[in-house]
Amino acid sequence: MYDSVIDVLVVGAGPYGLSVGAYARHAGLRVRVIGTPMDFWRNHMPAGMYLKSEPFASSLGSPVPGLTFREYNGGWPEGLPIPLHTFVSYGQWFAEQAAPDPEPSQVLRVEGDPGRVYTVTLSTGEEVRTRAVVMAVGVGPFAHVPRRLAPLPTTLVTHSVVHREFDRFAGKEVVVVGAGQSALETAVLLADCGARPVVLARTPQLAWNSLPGRTGSPLQTLLRGPQSGLGRGWRTWVWSERPQTVRYLPARARQHIVKNTLGPAGAWWLRDRLDSRVGRMLGRHVVDAAPHGDRVRLIVEDRRGDRTDVRADHVIAATGYVPDVDRISALPPELRRRLRRTLASPALDAHFQSSLPGLYFAGLTAAATFGPVMRFVHGADFAARRIVGHLAETIGAGTVRPDMAAAPRDATMLR
């Protein structure tokens, strides 16, 4: 039995949702987390994949010590790739240890009077009244398929997010569009399953991340900058460890940082696996696509304008995720229309609160405000601390007010 009005309802039980739930429970807030823990990671990521992030940057946000990824695993050496199943197990363990019993249902609709009480309808039929809602929906709703490919049927073109296994492509010709980690790892996993993949990308040359750890002299290491959750470099360290600074930059500068920090590249440990089994068509892009019998025909163009006719059994668009609040179906049109936006993302204040008091956004939807770290697990702790710090200070007044200070009641939350 729950109180008639709770303090906060968290939509999503991935790294950001679980982190917010953990901080909220620690702060003594009445909180419910809606979603199956790590469901997206478990059911929408390729079974054989590895995380690109290093162990120190793969922890969920916790208000108490002892719950990092390395502590769960008894220490995980730097430079050893993390298998997907290991990370999923860590997230599920974190939920058991720190989060307030995530509920395996779905949020269908968020309605109400911003700044007072929201009414959230669940797939169970229950209606939950809450003073605040945190949208931690992850990346799933925002899978991006290029416009030339989007009109084709899903029998011919899919986004990489829908593929957990690749066995059905054995013996098939598959074009993988993209040059980032998702595209390159998808191509390798396809080859491992007996498919004949080809990587098609605009870039004339694939980029690869370097082996982590200190290299060169102390002076060279100093000049290169510190290691952070987003890699090495002084500016990268700021975007990673001090994301609040990004918010003070002009919108165009923030957009440039999000777009160009950690551009498309493969992990260092994947490079040797992308061998002769994987074809490459680099420096090209799709200008037309159409069904051709039960296959797909692509017209691709290089930088000189020369065109090539490409036939394949299937195309997988490993072309990332583009946040857009209009794709969050749980938010009705009347609420979405009232949101101030930065591009297609919600414009957020210093506490991740949108222009609708009591409605917060965490994860990818916050990247337009707080920068590229919000695209990664590493940003979960900062987001959870900021959101719950604000909630802990304002909920006691019976309403969430955007002009209140952000200092939490429990100083340990800002360790």
TrEMBL record:
Keywords: Oxidoreductase. This is FAD/NAD(P)-binding domain-containing protein. It comes from the Bacteria. Pfam families: Pyr_redox_2 (PF07992). Residues 7-214 form the FAD/NAD(P)-binding domain. Signal peptide: none annotated. The keyword Cytoplasm does not apply.
